[in-house]
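Teaching assistant here, posting this on the class forum so everyone can see the example we discussed in section. The complex has two components, and the goal was to see what a joint structure prediction looks like when all of them are supplied at once.
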Amino acid sequence: MRIVVALGGNALLKRGEPMTAEQQRNNVRHAAKSLAELIAAGHQIIITHGNGPQVGLLALQAAAGPPDGVHPLDLLGAQTEGMIGYLIEQELGNLLPDDAMIATLLTQVRVDARDPAFRNPTKPIGATVDELTAKHTTAYRGWTFAPEGQGWRRVVPSPAPLDILELRVIAMLVERGVVVICAGGGGIPVVTQKDGSLIGVEAVIDKDRASGLLADRLGADALLLLTDVDAVQVGFGEPDARAIARIGADVLNPDDFAKGSMGPKVEAARCFAGSKGRIAAIGRLEDAIAILAGKAGTMVVSGDEPVSFRLPHKKLAFGDKSPGEPGPQG
Amino acid sequence: MRIVVALGGNALLKRGEPMTAEQQRNNVRHAAKSLAELIAAGHQIIITHGNGPQVGLLALQAAAGPPDGVHPLDLLGAQTEGMIGYLIEQELGNLLPDDAMIATLLTQVRVDARDPAFRNPTKPIGATVDELTAKHTTAYRGWTFAPEGQGWRRVVPSPAPLDILELRVIAMLVERGVVVICAGGGGIPVVTQKDGSLIGVEAVIDKDRASGLLADRLGADALLLLTDVDAVQVGFGEPDARAIARIGADVLNPDDFAKGSMGPKVEAARCFAGSKGRIAAIGRLEDAIAILAGKAGTMVVSGDEPVSFRLPHKKLAFGDKSPGEPGPQG
C-alpha cells in the first residue's frame, strides 16, 4: 500500500518531556522503528510530522535572543522542517538497508489569506505555562494564549491547507521508491499575492489536515495518523470511555472529539476515508503494523458502516503489550 | 551547462546588516534574480548556500532560551537549511515560470571523526563581537573565539566533506529538470559510528568545499562561487591590489589568500577546475552571467595557464554597473 504516515507532535515529544536534543533524538529513534517496520512490510510510505512543541520553543528562543532575530512563524516552521526532518531521516536511515533512499523535502502549503482562522487562533504551540506567564507574554509580545489542561498555551492561526507546492517533486520521488519526509509541521503556510507571487504567513497548519491533503493528492491507499493514544475514544477521560475499533466515515462526527487534539485527526481521517476504497487509521506509534491489520487503533472506512468498539478500555501495565498483540482491548 | 552555484553567506547577508527576516528575504530576492538569469540562459543549476551568520544567530538564540533547548550544531545547521532554503525556493519560484520545479533537500555530509579540524576550530559563525563579550562567552559557554577585523567571532570546527548522503536523490531530481537547493551551510556534518550508523557532530562544513564535492560527484561542468567581492585579488586590501581575470588551476596557490574567506573559495575552485574541461569561477552575485562569459569575476581553468589580470581595481559608484556590463574592471 501507499501510505501517508503522520507522526504526531506528541509521538515525537510527549507532554512534559524536556525538549533537549537527546530526548527528541531518542523519541525519533523510537518512531523510526515503527516506520522501518512499515517499509519492511512492503509498504511505500510518505512521512509527515508535527512541530507544535518545537516551533513554540524556537519562537521563545528567538524572542529571547537579539531583537533583529525575531523571525515570523513561516521561517520558524521552515526551521523545524529542517531540524525534525533531519532527525527522522538520520534515524530511519540507520535502520534501513544501505541502498534505501530517503529524502527530506521542504514543503510549502498554500492557504487562503481570507481564511477565518487568521482572526481566530486555535492551534496550540510550545510549552504549557502558568496564567501569570501567559498574561505577561500576551501584554509584552502580543501573543495569544488559551487554557489547556492545568495551564495555558500559546495559540496561533491554523488555516486550511489548499495546495502542496512541491507535490510534483514529492510524487516523482515516491514513484521512484524514495521514502519522502515532507509537509513537516503541516507545511510552511504561504498565500498567493495579487501579482501571483507567493509569500509566507504567520500561521501553523494542522499537520493532520495537511497529511490528509497530501495523501489525497498522491493517490495514497491509506492515511495513518500516529500519536500517543491507543485509539479514538468515545467519552475520552470518562470511566465508561470506549475505544472505537472501526467506523464508517459517514457516521463519524468530528464534533464529538476534543478540538485541540483528537478532533483534527478524526476530521482528517473522515475526509480521507470518505472516498471509496481508502482507509484512514489513528492509533499509537508503536502499533503501526497492528493498526493496519485492524488489531489496534481505530480504522475509518468509507461508507456508513456502524461503529464497532474494542473491549472496554483498561490501563495496561508496562510490558503487557507488544505490536501485533494488542492485548485486552484488542 | 550543469552548474553548481554556491551563494556565499556574505551574498545573503552582508557584514553589519541586521539579521531580520525582512533583510534576509530582500537579499535572497536579489540573489534569486541572478539565479533566474542563469536558468533563463538555459543552464541546469544546483544551488547551495552558506549559513555562517544564521547558524551563529540560532546558537545565540538557543543559548538565551530555556536551558533544555540548547541544541548542538548539527540540529542548528539543519534548521538553517530549512530556513534559508525556504527563502531561496520561494523567491526563486516567484521569478520562474509556473511549471518550473524547485526542491529544497535536506543534506547530510559525511566527515571523518578523526579530522584534525575538530581540535582546531577555524570556521567563523555569527556576528562580530567585542573582546569583552568574546571573553565572557568563552568562560560562560566554552565557545571559542578568534579575532576578525576589528572584533572577535565565534569559530567552530570545519572538517573536510567526504560524501554527500543524499547524492542519488539530488542526481535523480537534477536529471529530471528540477532546480535543486541542497547542501545548505555545507551540509549537516555526520560521522559513521562503529556499528555503521550515522550521527551528527558539532561542526560547520565549509560550503565552498561541500559545493566543490557536490559539483564533482554530479559531473557538473562548472562551479560558480558567488559572493560580495568583484573577483579574486592578489594583494587584497593593498593599494596595488590586482583582480585575477583567469588562471590555471595548477598555478593557483590557495595559501596566497585569506584563510577565513577567500582562501576556501580559491581552494574549492582550484580542486574542481583541476580536472580537464571543467571551470570554476568566483565573483559578485550580480555578475553571474558575466562571470561565466569571462567578462567579470575570476575564472579558474584546468592546466597551467598563467594568470591574467583585469584592469586595475577601481571603486565603483552605485549604479555604475549592471549585470553583463562589468564596467571599468571588466
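For the discussion questions: Residues 190 and 200 of chain B are 4 Å apart (CA to CA). DSSP finds nine helices and 17 strands in chain B. Think about how each of these relates to the inputs above.
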